[in-house]
Amino acid sequence: MSTAAAYAVSAPDGRFEKVTIERRELGPHDVLIDIKYAGICHSDIHTARDEWGGAKYPCVPGHEIAGLVAAVGSAVTRHRVGDRVGVGCMVDSCGECEPCVAGEEQYCIPGATMTYNTPVAPEIQADGYTMGGYSTQIVVTENFVVSIPEGIGLDVAAPLLCAGVTLFSPLRHWNAGPGKRVAIIGMGGLGHVGVKIASAMGAEVTVLSHSLSKQEDGTKFGAHHYYATSDRQTFRDLRNHFDLILNTVSADLPIDSYLKLLRLDGTLVILGLPENPLQIKPFTVAGYRRSLAGSMIGGIAQTQEMLNFCAEHGIGAEIETISADQIDGAYERVVASDVRYRFVIDTATM
Ligand code: NAP
Ligand code: ZN
Questions:
Q1: Does the predicted TM-score (pTM) go above 0.85?
Q2: Per-residue pLDDT band at 1 (split at 50, 70, 90)
């Protein structure tokens, strides 16, 4: 066992405090990573505040991890000491079920081991459940560690490990590209990376944000159009318009109104995960043969493909770097949609 500094909350309404956690001894296929940066995803907040139920405390969130390899197990072939690497939402999966064999580990049937808050044997994590990236070090099996290409800074790469692949995966799955009209609802951590990636894929990109306050940024990130959803006229102007709509909003939305913005055979993909059920009218989807779908992060191979794509297109997240003692304040600002566009913790401050 080795020890690492980490920041944990002890209750849904708790504040982050510095703790010391144990990381396991390196097995033959394990990689020890010196974490340099950890992004703050809204999912961290949902979990730390127990908004999805089942949270375990003390909770060390963090699944947008970028760092350097510090040591490798005896049988590791994919990574070497000093390599620039990343870890996203998953640290393991069964490897045998149909989705795992297809490289879609996020849909592992027995359930992937998520980077934090997943029950595991004490040999994997002494606490009995996984502890995430708000920490100075982590041990991860080599197949769940991806390479961060030269040319993307580790700080702006960190958010790509979740936000990047969560948008890249549905954009690829639903064939975003030239001639396709793609809308992104919500331009926060996920949304802003989605705008950059969709535009680099050649799609015609529209942002649907609750106000026009970030329009200039949206245009800079590659959006061709920008509308405020607080204006009812938006829903009249854009009716039957889009091939693909990606909803990244962390709060409840009147989803039926957005479904009506899809043209014939269009698809609205749920990415944002608020806790309440959605309400849709059967006529809205039956008319124009619209589809309502969902998507979870992306597989490991696709995460690597996304990082390579981002390096090739000069895409990184827009970040505000914070020290570890600023996590509580950053959470408040994310919830208030006051983030431009991802907070990233500099673990040197731990
Ligand atoms: P975020 O940075 O807080 O961005 C969410 C955006 O939603 C905000 O910037 C805001 O955009 C919009 N929004 C927030 N509250 C709103 C409200 N009351 N009404 C209308 N719009 C509102 O969060 P994030 O990190 O991007 O995560 C977004 C959601 O995706 C979370 O629920 C998270 O758990 C989920 N998530 C899902 C996956 C997956 O695999 N499916 C992966 C990661 C995260 P505007 O200001 O532009 O309106
Ligand atoms: Zn996330």
A1: yes
A2: confident
For ligand 1, say whether the CB of 49 is within 6 Å of any of its atoms.
Answer: no
Q: Which atom of ligand 1 is nearest to the CA of 342?
A: 2
Residue with CA nearest ligand 1 atom 9? 188
Q: List the alpha helices (DSSP H) in 201-276.
A: 215-221, 232-237, 255-259
Domains, in order of start, for the chain = 2-156+317-349 (3.90.180.10), 164-294 (3.40.50.720)
β-sheet bridge partners, residue 225: 206
Return d(Cα 70, Cα 2) in angstroms, integer.
12
The three-class DSSP label of residue 29 is: coil
104-163 tens-digit pLDDT? 999 999 999 999 999 999 999 999 999 999 999 999 999 999 999 999 999 999 999 999
What does the angle CA 252 – CA 160 – CA 270 come to, to the nearest 5 degrees?
A: 25
Closest atom of ligand 1 relative to the 213 alpha carbon: 46
Sign of CA dihedral 49, 328, 163, 71: negative
What residue owns the CA closest to ligand 1's atom 3?
Answer: 334
